Amino acid sequence: MQLLKKHTNIALAYFLLVGLMGVFLRLFYIFPIPANYGFIVHAHSHVALLGWVYIALVTLIYKLYLSETGKSRLYRRIIWFTNICIIGMLLSFPFQGYAFISIIFSTLFLIATYWLAWFIFKHIPKKYKKANSYVCIKASIWYMILSSIGPWAVGGVMATLGKASVWYKLSIYFYLHFQYNGWFILALIGILFYIMEQLSVKTDRKQFRSFFLLLNISIILSFFLSVLWTKPPVIFYILAAVGAIVQMLAFYYFFRILHDAWPVFKKKLSPRVLKLLKLSGLLLTVKILFQLLSALPYFANLALLYKDFVIGYLHWTFLGVVSLCLFAFLEHFKLVRLNWQILILYLIGFIFSELLIFYRGMQLWLRWPSFAEYPVLLTIISALIPLAVGILLVKNLTSNTKF
């Protein structure tokens, strides 16, 4: 247990660094900074996805399925190797962007993910193999592997066509899509099903099969939402729209399953975990609606013209849906100890920064009034997020023995 708490603290430390880098990026709009903005963005995004979310998810998956298999030594090696790769990216991206050293560490990280996937598939106990939760977790790991095609392609595209090529962005969007919508979301759903299984909540087999089939179809087809900015042939718009609609159907079944489980959740889960899950579910619903809107050519073009909408959507998913759900699960499995003061501070930073980011997009699109204080206000509001995470990390480090 102490090992997993240590890894949770490492994940939180990465989240703190991500938040501080986010604030640093805001400062570029206030006064001149002798640094490369694009390079910092690369470090920010890589540590966000591969540091905080990846390490937190892997820690939870190991605790749920593998902590009693006697394979902690091998698991430690994988995590140490993974952290060396993340730290390598953290120290190289801000100074050189995509270049020799950062590409080496990025490549090694991909190898670390394959090693981890092998470790989980090989050592998963037999009793979990047919459980709904592991079915979702296994699929999420395959999506993680599939997403790695994007980074592999980036190197080839840069060497042949250059960063200005449309294929450079498509490679990145391919990676982000299957990370966010395949690996992250499906892994979190798998953990939620694990909790249901531990609480002896019976899930209708037919409903689960419908949900799982539709969700996988939607994950594949909704990737085409990420290519609409290139103004492709009509067939791609049709595939993207089908993917967005099928996703809605998939989550209709998912929320029906949750509705049946909710009475047990209300009795067995703590009020804080319950409220975090409800909020994550609400934010997930809005995310799905965002994706449905983006299937329409007009709104797809808006995302191309005004990048604030894309940034707002990515932060909505990362800071809202994914991070709040991770907080709920880490609290439930006693890997962190949250309190309402920390959560309120985090939520104020998240909600108001999202409002400001989307306002900026609306201001450019609809010619809403601008205000000179915008960069300073966004910087101050954004700083509440690393402040909340920093307090949580310190609290976790100083109270580990009292769990």
UniProtKB/TrEMBL annotation:
It comes from the Bacteria. Keywords: Membrane, Transmembrane, Transmembrane helix. The chain crosses the membrane at residues 12-31, 43-62, 74-93, 99-121, 141-161, 173-196, 208-229, 235-255, 276-299, 311-330, 342-362, 374-394. This is Uncharacterized protein. It comes from Christiangramia antarctica.
